[in-house]
Records
---
Amino acid sequence: MQPSISGGRLKAPQYKDVFCDHVMPLTEMQAQVESSRCYYCYDAPCIQACPTQIDIPSFIRKINNGNIKGAAIDILSANIMGGTCSRACPVETLCQEACVREHAEKKPVQIGSLQRFATDEFFKQLDSEGKNKKTGEKPFTRAKSTGKKVAVVGAGPAGMSCAHRLAMLGHSVTVYEAREKAGGLNEYGLAPYKMTDDFAQKELDFILSIGGIEVKTGKRLGQDIQLDGLKKDYDAVFLGLGLGSTNRLGIEGEDLPGVIDAVAKISEIRQAQAKDPSGSALAKVPVGRNVVVIGGGNTAVDIAIQIKRLGAEFVTLVYRRGQEDMSATHHEQELAQKNGVVLKTWAKPSRILGDSKGVTEVQFEYTAISGGKLSGIGEFFSLKADQVFKAIGQKLEFSGLDVDGGKIVVNDQFETKMAGIFAGGDCVGPGEDLTVTAVQQGKLAAMAIDQKLAKSQGGKRG
Ligand SMILES: Cc1cc2nc3c(=O)[nH]c(=O)nc-3n(C[C@H](O)[C@H](O)[C@H](O)COP(=O)(O)OP(=O)(O)OC[C@H]3O[C@@H](n4cnc5c(N)ncnc54)[C@H](O)[C@@H]3O)c2cc1C
Ligand code: SF4
């Protein structure tokens, strides 16, 4: 490791707050004022823009009337991870972009913050078993048992949303998860300044409080369990595997020490934060002085911001096309710049230089579009680097099902070409790779599985 890479770049007390909420939650008064800005539109465009179709005007009206439970039930019955989505959704390109007040005055109703207010306040009303502290009632209950068993593989947003809906419909669910903790990228990937206070695990506990869901961690499909076995032992299977491995750059020097997969580093940072909220584990995370990030999506922006906040001196994010082509939203790009990250566009890495101690420099070639194709123009520049983060996309790790464009092929019921095996979330083709999309697909797949199981016994249950 290069001597310039070390932990403890900040003063000890700074670690506690380095990843505090980047959007502060609303106070009760602020929620009152903000909810009164909604026009409660008929045929509200914000609902159409929400991938889970939450009845947004209805929950906002309930907040305004002081009915927190009603507001939260509106949200959670459409999106059981409404708490995470209120923190992580790119609302500026979804519901808030569609809000009529965005069009009229460039000041949309703060739907994401109101959604967070409703779900956070509602969770405060529940005890550790997910029951209302006053009435002992659970907000979501199970239907009469169908006697059917479903296996869910992957405990990320898609898998857990599917499991919850299946449990609600009376099926018995076993979730198999490869990692040590359930939660998928909610636990291991979302930026720590979006998911403070161990929220991913709190939300998971709430989801499991419905009952009828058993989670088995440390069980990897293809290694500890096999698809054939699951098919035999269960009435249906849902795969919510996400995209487990990272694309390679395919250039010289890629395997030098200090050239790191951005998702793995983000996971290390998230787990350090979860281990010790006082920040002492974060202080041990190795951070370089001159950091280069390669990529143009959310993952690239996230690692750049996180490593800069942990004390890297210079962080440069390099993207091969223009800023307007980056898949990270404008809001995320702005956040990166506000955090001191330098964005450099129209350049691609050509080789990484260094020695056995680690990387020292990255050489880039300027790019341009020529004849409709992106290519290098033969002019080069170098950036000094002791850490290089690769964030050029992820890919499916699992093989054994039909794949198109790197994703599992499913029909409009989220069933794969293998009957009885369903899939959803990042591992399948349709939809953007977002938490909210994964939650919606998991929910829709659960409903399709339920229909199929009901049909298989002539519409009768149990
Ligand atoms: C760094 C990063 C930041 C992001 N930030 C945002 C954001 O701010 N907002 C947003 O909306 N989206 C964000 N996303 C995208 C979002 O996290 C994903 O779209 C979402 O998590 C997809 O959910 P999923 O359930 O399909 O997959 P995942 O969350 O990846 O979950 C898949 C689960 O399956 C498990 N698994 C995989 N293979 C196996 C196997 N063979 N056997 C058993 N278990 C297995 C994995 O361990 C994992 O727990 C981000 C993604 C990344 C990488
Ligand atoms: S579009 Fe805006 S104003 Fe209309 S219902 Fe939705 S949040 Fe309210």
---
Amino acid sequence: MADRLLTPSKITAWLDCTHYLTLQHRVEAGTIPPPSSVFGSMAKLLVDKGIQHEAACLAEYRVRGLDVYEVPPKRDGESFASWVERVGNPMDAGHDVIYQMPFLHDGVRGVADFLVRVEKPGLGFSRYEPVDAKLARSDAKPGHVLQLCFYADAIEAVTGLPPEHLHLWLGSGETESLVAVEFQPYWRRLRSQLTSLLDEKAGGSVTVPEPCAHCDFCEFQDACSDVWRESDSLHYVAGIRGEDRLALEGAGVGTMDLLARRRDPVDGVRGERLDRLVEQAGLQVSARSDGEGAPHYEVIEPSEDPTWGRGFELLPEPDAGDVFLDFEGDPFWRADVGLFFLFGLIARDASGTWDYEAFWSHDRDEEASATEDLIGFLIDRRERFPSMHVYHYNHTERSALERLTADHGVGEAALERLVETGLFVDLMPVVRNSVQIGVESYGLKHLERVTGYQRGTRSTRVPGQSSSTSSTWSTATTIDSTASPPTTRTTSGRR
Ligand code: SF4
């Protein structure tokens, strides 16, 4: 029975995806095998970072001189219920902080990161309130709040005293406190809906996998991808929206192959949009039969539409000073802040040979220096090549650079002047509005196949991170397969 209990993490996942619970219950019922990997790589990274953040919070309580009680961990082979019974109620002992407190309450089980004792001066008693350490840097997420609501109910069940507040210790170091009674009614309603899903009949049959924000972190990702692949799902048509898919499925066009052959109109999808989706699906179907070769593409004919077919019109004249820029970063370098650890660019040298330049950062100070050095490089080059541009793919390079100059207080005004003069050119809208390509995504890694480009990869450790939390990145050595490979020269911003 204990295996069928809800957990806060299941509840959080259910908020994003109802199918997740269905699969979990099938695993628990033994009707499907458990996923081979408990976490995707991103989820594993986040779990590791979360553990580090939790340890930092625990250390902080100790630094404050509080009486911290660490609950003895669950033993191998011990059931959750037995663990809860063995732990008993350490809140009776009046510790300031209780770490890793297990609760089993009303069909839900969970382990609260921290319970903190809150004095009620004048009332002659104290009560405990739950604190969860979360990597989020701002704002509580719904799943976080629901977990805290569960801990609040469980604390009240054990002590008879309902917590007034729920607390999140965010990755930014800030604590966000919420009034418990404002959220508990929602939690209790949701919880009863979920209980019905635990029922054998309700739990298994009606949900289907739908791509959502949780997929990248979900242990069932491979299983769901297999379902989508086998059913030739429309999910994989590049650029398709949820409402397009619903309208197409409603018209009996439920696969990429059917979409590629669709000639009749579809209610709910405008004619021009349908034409684009049919063309896109057709190119992808052709690419499938072509195997690993470069995918087919079609240049889009300009029309009355001011954007579609006019991507190439966004391109400035080529210039000898042009620069192609790319960044690499680790969003969870630390719980409170990410790090752009590499600004890489290629530009032609005096002989016209493509040259690679890299600005590395190993910590925030070096990130500030690298930002300043990069802007200095661009200013200097712009003076020598007044008609040059900086090309990047997707908006990140420009928007991240603007944020970095503001965060570090370096080169902000200089960058603003460069931006105002139209220095930066985002190539993604150029591509999206000029060619349709037989790829599932218009991300750079997919588009490289069009040029026959072979990516050279190397794994490396993110500066300042342990091997268990290291990330990998790949560095492109050329962006133009028709040009001579560039010489590769790595410079440090300030290493
Ligand atoms: S992979 Fe996505 S659709 Fe499948 S169970 Fe997980 S979250 Fe749901």
